[in-house]
Structure formats: structure tokens, C-alpha cells
Amino acid sequence: MKVNLRKIGAIVAGATILASTAAFAGLYFGDTMLVDDNGAPVAKVVVGENAAASDGVAGALVAGKIVSEAYKTETLTASLSGTPTCTGGAGNETGTCAISNEKAQLEITVPGGVAEGTYTINNLIGDYLNRRLDDRVNNNDTTNTDAAYPIGGSDVSENANPFTDGVGGNIGPSEVYMYRITGSMFSPFATSTIKDDAAAKTYSEQQDFWVKGSNYYSDSDNEVVGDLKFAAYTLKFKGATDDLGIPVCTTPTNDDYTYCKSGATDANFDYATETHKVRVTFLGEPWIISEMSPPDISTCNVTTESEICPGGYVKLAKESVSGILNQGEWLPVDDLKFKLDDLEAHGDVTSAIISVLDANDNILKKDKVNPGTTKEFAIGGKIYRFHVYKVAPGYTFGAKWADVAIFAKELKLQDGEQLDPDYDNNKDWQVAVGWKNKGASSSSGQVDHLRTLVIYADDIASLSSSGDSKLAKDDYIPIVEDPVAWKLTYKGLDLTSADRNSFKFQLERTSDYTGISSTKGPYAGSGNPRVACTIYAPYVKVTTSKSGSVFEIDDGDDGTGTTTILTDNAFYIATDMAHSPYAGFTCDDDGSVAHNCPNGMTYNATNDVCHQTAGIGSGAVFMRLSPSSQFYGYKLYNWTTPLSTIVKYDTIGDGDTTWNTGGVIEIAYYNDAINGGRSYMGDLRSGAIPYCVAEGGTEPRCFGTTRLTVTTATAPDWYFAVSEKAGVDTSNNIADYFLVGLYTGGGTPGDATFNWDSQTNSSLYVTRKDYILYMYAGPVSTRGSVTTLEEGGVTERGSVFSSIDDTSVNFNMANKLGHAQFVLASTGATAGAESTCVRTLGEGETSEPCNGVTVKVLQITENVGACTAGGASATCTVNMEGVSPVIMPGNTATATRVVPYADAYKNLVILDRDAAGVNTVVSIGGDRVNTVTQQLLQGSAVDWTTTRKVVREVVQGSKIVVAGAEAADTLEAANDFVNQLRRT
Questions:
Q1: What is the pTM of this model?
Q2: Among residues 255, 250, 256, which one has the least CA distance to residue 275?
Q3: Which DSSP letter does residue 109 get?
Q4: Cis peptide leading into 480, omega within 30 of 0?
Q5: pLDDT digit string, tens, across residues 49-105
Q6: Which of 211, 648, 763, 860 could, after both became Cys, cross-link 552 (CB 3.0–4.6 A)?
Q7: Domain limits, the chain
Q8: Angle at the Cα of 471 (from 469 to 477), degrees rounded to 5?
Q9: pLDDT digits (tens, 9 = 90+) for 174-200
Q10: pLDDT by 10-residue block (mean), the chain, 984 residues
């Protein structure tokens, strides 16, 4: 008989199996191929003839790596071994055979794999992770219920707290301020259907991930950190027509869905869900419910269906190999056999009698295993978990069988304990298990339906990769520790260098600015001639690397008295306070007899200049009319009714240009700033609380909350403050602020500086050396509170205070609102355990699912005809000895195996004297001991006193040097080289 097993290859799960097999690719360093796609080494490792022994060790390390990668893969398919013979009657005539009851025994291996997915949480800098992001609401703000998932109420509402007990209390944790990741956000969490084929029932499963924390700039860490406080992964089950969950028993006795496990003589254990191989999704993989144990009525007397009671435990398992064994048959795993010897009754329980045999059929262990339980066997330093689902005692040899499995993994989820409490692999994850009572009444209190499984971590420092709850960029927490299916990784800010532009206050304290010439200056006089202007030192130039109309003054003047919009990416501030006889700036007159001046200026005959009418020009701002214009306009400082000067900067306001919402620069003389500027910045020198009223609103906007008495320290002359948008959506009107103070030198321009302490009491500073003043948008740091920001500090918009010295203050301003990112993603390096199932099937039959994979035998063909023999009454029998279906290797339908390249090591390592004509080389050792290295480095000699290691592709695609200054350096270079090899 010849069986066409290629037709069996049309397996429903075949695509999954084939997709899971490994694929080979070439081994490369840079553009140089070391091993080709067929697994053959194509490079030589060259060691200097006069090299030290350490170079030989380095060469061996490189060669060993190449040999270990010298292999290819090939796929093997099934075939049938042996041919049946027919013997006819007493005369032993040769006959032909008619085949019936064809069966094929298949061993199905399903590679493990975690469901892939990625979701990114984007949170404002300085904000909390809670139910509603981007709102800048404090977690303690009880008036804003949108930020929380309150404990209490029903567990079936869309926004139910995952730990509610449905009647006003909680099971396990009591957290309410959390952010939730659902199945619509993260594909592995998609709501799934659970099938119990044995009971013809279906359920649904909802998965969610919850996290509590915040992110903020940390002075001590010099970066924006992610601070996690709590994390939880929850499963919630419901029935096809109710919100109760999965029953312990699928058929009740007197409304008790736990009776099948009671041990009573009339209890039918086959009704237990744990015997039905029901698969739930847990940590991205299918797991079997291997045991359910609800809490006893003495601790959970639930008299309403809406209440959830915590307690008990559930076990989930991953099958390694499973199948139905007749007496005398076994399951193979590694080099062992787990053999069903017999079934033995002990009262109402029939146990499976198991022998564990080695490869030579020597008995290593014997034990009995009851249905619904798992027995652990420690053999050769490894734990094997043998589980019995159900048994059929029978009375004859062929009628005794057991449905069994060997588990690759089994986790116990026991309420109030760490995950898998018998082991310490998941000691930082705690468990809560919640149950409901179907048909609950005042007289029926036993919980009998699994409603929710919760694993949670509240000690993030012990769990995180950094050992701290404050996560730096790329730190993570695993979910869970064993097996690690997913990681929540803190990825830092979503801002790149392209999202920021430089912003600079540049102080010139030695030379006056004369760049506003008579061809570029403002208008003056009736004929509107243009005039030159001079800005006296010290003055400040404000610039940005962003081009175009970045800054704007919408109430500027071109000299005619007409309100004019000024816009450019740079402007000048006349900050001089002491130039004689007129401070700040002066302009020429129009040259006429009338000596006309630009608007707002008066002619001084003594000095032949125009100056500001009030007698002082300090504070005036000069800016071009547009980026494409060469002409300047100006905005004079209001010395009559001081309100400070506003320059719009809508890039940092996301289009807004008000002090409250962001997008402005304020320029204010010190006394005006503390009395009437938009920001009311700085301190007052008498002893009362400063007057802080918001522009068009009720939020206080002032720097500092105490008026200071400055005695011996220097006071600033000018304040420059910046308001930048720090919110979006419901927090769109929230800004953060920073302030820079300028001391103009007390009449000596060369002493002017940005960088000094404005008073001696460091706890009451207004300006502080090496820092700027900063006001928080909140809420992690209280909104409106003030601090100092150090160099490198990040604002809650995402701008960076780069540096400060006497003559410059530098920032990199965020052109968009920045967010801190937490990424939940599958761990690509971790695969689930593979599972193997043995199934015996006839043509057209379909197997019971093997961890989600179902196999169907479409057709078995044969070339054997009817059995006939000589003689009228001759009988014919079939001799099947020597015939067996073989799935090669290891009885798999298809298999991929690794084939090492023959003699990969031969001539792989050569001396430099033998390297002539070799195309692709990895040259080990420096130019003093290896002539090949010497030739390759000609023209680019290495200074070994400063360069300790060289790992370099000298000739693209063919020549590589791996060398070091000393022996230890060469060995380290070899390790670096090996670590940089890649498959393509």
C-alpha cells in the first residue's frame, strides 16, 4: 500500500506551521559577506605569522563565530516506509489486498508565538497618566471625574473600574487614576470568543492594560523621566447571554455550577470546564484552563448576581505534547516516554498509573495521577508536568484510555498571592481573582463563575529594568516576568532635533549697533525720507534659526505714526540705561530746516539727533517690516503707562499669541515688570504679596509669591519672559513660562550680564547664576509654582534651556507640543512554548484542536487492489508487518532542519603570508604583526596611542581589519566584531 501523504499536506493549519519555520540569510559585516545564503563561508580569517598568541585567540573567536553560522535550512516532507504483503489460504499463495479502515497517526508540532502589537501612550510633559490624557488635571482633583475610574457601581459599564466588586467595594487593588489600553488600541487585546466544544458553549474575553504614573523633567536625572506607580493586566469573561463569566461546571445541580467537582457519588467530573481543554488568551497566547477552584461559600456567600467575590485560584497551562493514550501507549518528550500503564480505581476516583521511561525503556519514575490534576516529575534537572484531563476505566484492554498532556508551562493564579506562588519567577506581579454566582439568591451563595483575572504590580522599582520607578529612556517593565510576553517601555520625548529651533538672547556690550543705515531706517518728515539709527551698547539681539515671519509686533511704527506690523526672525532691544545724554538709541533727523524726526521722537539741536520724546529710548524694539524687506520699523517702550512690550512668537503658541495661552515674548523694565507687566514678574522691595491677576482670566500669573527685600545684591534692569503653550484640547489655554533677567552694568556696558544672582538669599532668588526662572504648567509640579531651571532643563512644552553665560542665553524651542511616550509592545525575542499533539485520524476526519491548530486528513490513496488467492475457497489475509507511515524526521507533517556546511572550518584561518589573491579577508591584529593589515591601512595609518581598537571595513564588500593597540584591545575588538555581525 502507498499512502499519498502530500495530499495530507492540505492542512488547515499548514500556513501557520510553515510561516513559523526559520529562514536562512547570509552573514554580513557592513557590506562584506562572510557566509553566503547556502551556508558556505566566503571569507578567510588572516592572522600574522609573527603575531602574539592573543591574536590567535582573537582569530579563533572570529572563525568560531563564522563556523557556527555556516549552515542552511531545508524542508523535509512525509513519506511511507514499507510495503504490505498478502498471503492467501493454506497454500500460502500470494494475493492482493483490499484496504479498509485506513488511519494515519499524525504528530502535529505548533511553534509558539506571541501575538504582535504596538501601542504608544502620548502624555504631556509634567502631566499624569490617568483616564483622560492631555487635560493637565491633578489626580487629586476630585471635581474632575473624567480623570478617574471610580470604585463602586456595576462592573459591566463601559468605564467600570477593573477592581470593583459590583456592589461598592473592590477586589484587590483600589486604584482609580489609571490610563487604560483596550483591544481597539492594542490588537493582541482584541475581544475574543472562547469555545467549549465539549459543552457546546461560547464565552467572550476582554483584555485591558492599566497604568498609573506621570512624567516630568528631573534635575537629578537631567532628562524627562517616566515615573510609573502601578500597572495591571486584566481579563474579564462573560457568557453568551450574560455577564457572569465561565462556569466551573457546565451543567449545574440545583443551580450549583460547582457540584461536578464536589466528589459526591452522583457528581460527573466530565462536566468540569477544566476537563474540556477550554482555551483563553493570556499574555498574547492561547492557554488551557487546567484547573478552577472558586472560594468556598464560607468566605464568599454571594446572594446577588451583580456581586464579585475575590478568592480561590485558576491554573492556566501550555501543552507541550498531548493526546489520548490507550493502555500501554505513551507520549514522547525529549528522550523520555510517559507511558499509561493502567487505570486504577480508588473509591470514586480512577487514577492513571504512569511510568516514565528513558531512551532504553528503563523505568525512571512511577506514579499515579488523578483526573483534573498535574503531577510534576523532576528528571535530569528539568521539571515535567504530566496532566490528566479525564479517564475511561473500561473493563477490557482496548477500552481503557486517558486524555493526557505534558505541560510546557503551568501558571497558578491564586487570589492575594504572587503570580505562580510556588515559584519566584513572577514575584513582582500580584493576583486578584473574581467570581460571580449564577442564580444567586438569599439561599444560594456559592460562587461558581469565573468573572475576572487580574495581575498587577505596585512595586515598580523592583520590577523595572532600571531598578527604579523613574524610567529613563528605553527603561521598561516586563509584563509579566516569566514568560515575558510584552514590555511597557518608556521612550522619552517624541521631539527630534527637527522639531526644535534655536532661540537666543545675545548681549552686545562693547560696540553700538549701526546697521540701521539711512537706506534702511524708519521714515522721518513730511517727505518721508529714511534716516539712520544707532542702538547703544549694551543692547540685546534676539534670533531664531527658524526662517520667515517668526516674531511679530502688530502695533509697530514705520516712523510715520501709522500702526504697522513688523515681522522677522530677529529683532533688537535697546537696553542701554546710561548712555549720555540719551540712553537706548537715537536716530538722525530728515536733514530739513525743520529737522523732522520719526514719530514719537524729538530733535535735540545740541547733539543733532532725534530721541524718544520722554527723554529715554531704552526698551525700544527694532524689527524689519518683513523677512524680505530691508527696512526697519520700531516699537517704543511705553514709559508713560508702563505695560511692557509684547512680541508675538506664534511658533511656540501653536498659533496663539497671548500671555495666558502661549506664543509671546515680554520685554519689561524691572519696576514695570513687578508692578504692571503682563507677567507681573519678579519681586517687589517692600513686604506684601504681589498683585497677580491674569490677562483676561482668573489664573494667577506671577513669578514668586513673596515680595522681597533686596539689600546688598544687584537688581536687574530688564526682564525678558517667554510664554509657550503647554496644553491641548481641554488644556489648550494652559502655558508654561520662563524668565531671563539682564543687568546693564550700572553705567559700564562692559559689566552688563545675564548671569548673576539678583540677591543673596538663595531661597528667595529672582534670578540665579547658571539658571533661569521657570513657572510650571502642572499638574505634577503645582501649576503656577515657580522654580529655577538648570542648563539642559526641559520645559513642559518640550523646549530646552541650553545654556547661559554673561552675554548669551540659548534655547532650543519646540515648534510643536511635546509628549512623553510609553510604548506597549510584544517582545520579539520571546516566543511561546511549542506544543505537540498526537492524533490518529481516518480519511475525512478532523482532529481536535492542538493549541488552536486543527488538522484534517483530506485523502489517503493507495495502489493495492482486492485480496485474492488461488482456489475456490481460499482465504486471504493481509500482513502489515514492516509497514508504517513515517513523518520524517520526528513524525512531523513537515519539518525544517538545519544542515551544517560540510568542512566549514577547513582553510578558514590562514597566515598573512598565504593571503595573496584571497578576495574576502578578516585581518586580525595590527600593522606591526600582520602584513595584510599593514597593506590595508596604507594611506590611513592608525595612531595606536590614541586609537585603542579598529573594527573597520577598509574595502567595501571585501576587506575588514580587526585589531587593537595591545593584546587585550585586539581581543576586545574581536568581540566587538562578532557582536556586529548580522543576517540580511
A1: 0.72
A2: 250
A3: E
A4: yes
A5: 988 888 989 999 999 988 888 887 776 665 555 555 555 555 555 555 555 556 666
A6: 648
A7: 14-71+901-983, 118-312+431-492, 318-407, 499-635, 645-817
A8: 75
A9: 999 999 999 999 999 999 999 999 999
A10: 30 30 66 85 90 90 89 67 56 54 62 69 97 92 86 91 94 95 94 95 97 96 97 97 96 92 91 96 93 93 92 95 91 93 85 94 94 93 94 73 93 96 93 94 83 97 95 95 91 96 97 96 89 97 98 96 96 94 93 93 93 88 97 93 88 94 91 59 38 38 44 70 95 93 91 81 65 92 88 98 97 98 78 53 67 64 53 52 52 66 84 87 90 86 86 88 91 91 82
Q: What is the DSSP letter of 234?
A: E
Cα distances (angstroms) measured from residue 159 to each of 178, 181, 219, 235, 261: 11, 12, 37, 15, 35
789-828: b (≥16 Cβ within 10 Å) or e: bbeebbbbbbbbbbebeebbbbbbbbbebbbbbbebbbbe
Cell of 820: 512623553
HEC-encoded secondary structure of 397-428: HHHCEEEEEEEEEEEEEECCCECCCCCCCCCC
> CATH second-level architecture of 14-71+901-983?
3-Layer(aba) Sandwich (3.40)
Give 707's Cβ-side CA count (13 Å radius).
14
- Cα 130 to Cα 613: distance, rounded to the nearest angstrom: 56
Beta carbons of 678 and 646 less than 8 angstroms apart: yes
How far is 965 from 942, CA to CA, in rounded Å?
Answer: 10
Residue 168: all three cell numbers together: 461598592
Q: How far is CA 314 from CA 174, 434, 451, in A?
A: 22, 10, 11
